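Structure (tokenized):
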């Protein structure tokens, strides 16, 4: 029916007919009324615009309870956080360490209850340092080196050491000074650089573990090594002196190598001679002892004969070493002794010629005194 027909039921300015389904706005208002009545303790809930006895009017806007609930939901929503794949999150509750969260979506009680600190534990960081170091041969070198590291334990990194990066710098400089201080200048520049970096890395890691720094050192690199210009001339003089010392030491070693074999040979020869002399003396002593035993046996059998024999042999041994000859002329006239200086004659003529003596002065050297044995002519 058109709106302008009689009856007035279709008047557009009239009251609209009530729909069966409520609109979304009305449904939200009803939910708001119910929630407000629950929060206020009013279980009945008025449906009209107002109630007798000074009832509360609804529908004017959201109540304080709804606002509080919305604020609570929003506050709880702020508890969600994500951790990147290269990171780890350290969770603290009222400032006290609670846990370490790995990569992914997490929830915590929002501020001010829980707080999080994200640490890039999977990222390799690099720091560069510079230090002047003395080597083992007292040379000063200026070194540029870099240290690469990762955060192995976020909890130790944040809470066990006050300033982890400053601690890493001090530990690295101390380690490089210790390692280079045990190496020579030549090994630092040329031959031993790889071992120096490896020993430095090991020493830095061991010290950081003792400090519970939570840092893992991945590498130590020597980027530049220079001798300072201010000390270069002095170091050249010192190196020259060291070279001269090494040269003199080598020369002394060569001289010792030439002398020692000769001295050892002489010592060995003297030892052999001493052993031979010892064997000779022992043999002679043993022979003399055996001879004495034989003499003792002969003397026990014939004392007079043995005594006379020993005397004659002793005189022969004594007089046989001289070049002078003394003849006993007791058998001749006057009892004079004839002395022949054969040593002087040998010096003058080079040979010995015995001339016959004048008659009546005794016997010649080729003759024997009558009635006297040859061994009985020489007496003391």
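Design, position by position:
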């Amino acid at each position: 029916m058109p709106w302008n027909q009689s009856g007035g039921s279709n008047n557009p300015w009239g009251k609209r007919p009530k729909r069966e389904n409520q609109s979304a706005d009305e449904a939200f208002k009803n939910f708001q009324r119910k929630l407000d009545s629950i929060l206020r303790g009013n279980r009945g809930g008025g449906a009209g615009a107002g109630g007798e006895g000074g009832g509360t009017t609804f529908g004017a806007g959201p109540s304080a309870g709804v606002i509080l609930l919305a604020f609570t939901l929003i506050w709880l929503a702020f508890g969600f956080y994500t951790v990147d794949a290269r990171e780890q999150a350290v969770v603290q509750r009222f400032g006290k360490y609670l846990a370490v969260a790995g990569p992914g979506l997490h929830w915590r009680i929002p501020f001010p209850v829980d707080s999080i600190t994200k640490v890039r534990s999977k990222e390799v960081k690099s720091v560069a340092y510079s230090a002047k170091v003395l080597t083992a041969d007292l040379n000063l070198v200026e070194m540029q080196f870099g240290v690469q590291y990762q955060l192995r334990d976020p909890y130790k990194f944040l809470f066990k050491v006050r300033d982890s990066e400053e601690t890493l710098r001090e530990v690295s400089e101390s380690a490089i000074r210790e390692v280079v201080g045990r190496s020579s200048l030549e090994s630092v520049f040329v031959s031993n650089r790889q071992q120096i970096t490896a020993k430095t890395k090991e020493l830095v890691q061991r010290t950081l573990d003792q400090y519970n720094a939570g840092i893992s050192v991945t590498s130590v690199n020597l980027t530049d090594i220079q001798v300072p210009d201010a000390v270069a001339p002095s170091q050249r003089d010192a190196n020259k002196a060291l070279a001269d010392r090494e040269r003199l030491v080598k020369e002394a070693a060569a001289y010792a190598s030439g002398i020692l074999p000769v001295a050892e040979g002489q010592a060995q020869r003297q030892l052999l001679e001493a052993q031979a002399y010892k064997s000779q003396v022992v043999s002679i002593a043993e022979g003399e002892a055996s001879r004495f035993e034989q003499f003792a046996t002969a003397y026990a059998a014939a004392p007079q004969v043995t005594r006379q024999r020993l005397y004659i042999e002793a005189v022969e041994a004594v007089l046989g070493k001289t070049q002078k000859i003394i003849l006993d002329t007791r058998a001749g006239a006057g009892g004079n002794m004839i002395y022949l200086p054969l040593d002087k004659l040998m010096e003058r003529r080079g040979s010995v010629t015995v001339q016959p003596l004048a008659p009546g002065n005794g016997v010649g050297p080729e003759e024997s005194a009558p009635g006297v044995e040859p061994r009985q002519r020489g007496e003391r």
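Reviewer-requested clarification: The chain has a mean pLDDT of 75. Residues 232-301 form the longest helix (70 residues).
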